[in-house]
Request: fold
Amino acid sequence: MRDPRRKKYNLRGKKMDYTDSSYDSVDSWKTIILLYNSALKEINTKLEILNDEFQHVHRYNPIEHIKSRIKTPESIVKKLRQRGYESTIENMVKYVNDIAGIRVICSFTSDIYNIAEMLANQSDINVLSIKDYISHPKESGYKSYHMIVTVPIFLSDGCVDTKVEIQIRTVAMDFWASLEHKINYKFEGEAPEHIKRELFECAEMVSDLDAKMMSLNDEIKGFAASESELEEQIESQKRAAERTLLKEKLYAEAE
Ligand code: 0O2
Reply:
């Protein structure tokens, strides 16, 4: 027999309706966390496939590593409060975009844009918003590429488009952001001016480092390409020489 509580989730049809205020909070919370966890799995798999394909086709991995997390209930409530919303499940789903968050750490800045474009082009991904803090860094110096997307999650009796925040950044940007986050946490957002200034200087160093690493990588790629072209030329000359030798041998035998 069908569990009568399921009706409360309102999952029938194309989209989930979060506006039903009659549902049981605990059950709804569990269902919602299940959805967000599933969405993280979906995006994670998509990223792993792209990385594997890149390795197969281009012989290199654009993704260094992936981290994912579900926001804690305390952080969700804090965010809602800061924005003046009541702590309800409906508000959380509507106004907190990063309940499911995934962080993609790439080697080079160009990889960030490639990954973002490849994800956005997938037919089941719906991009809700993009914040490019790489071309427009935050005042603090923070750099990262943020996308809020939805991905369809198919449950036993319906499909729910579920939101995920994807943060894509380089190893160096991630190093900076982790330290800055720790410092801000320690000083509760009120770090002394000289620390803020030094962090900003570090952010500039991170940008320089990323730019230098990328141009070095481009140079190496160019070198590798010309090396493989050279190898190909040598191989084809070798094959041509072998053919000529074979022909000469056949003529000699025929005479
Ligand atoms: P936590 O603990 O990392 O989850 P929106 O999500 O679009 O409704 P919001 O939250 O202003 O609005 O979005 P934004 O600016 O894209 O930032 C979201 C997340 O980016 C933050 O989540 C941080 O993870 C990260 N972030 C943004 N600015 C900074 C920054 O200056 N320094 C560092 N280290 N990280 C930053 P949370 O919820 O603030 O925190």
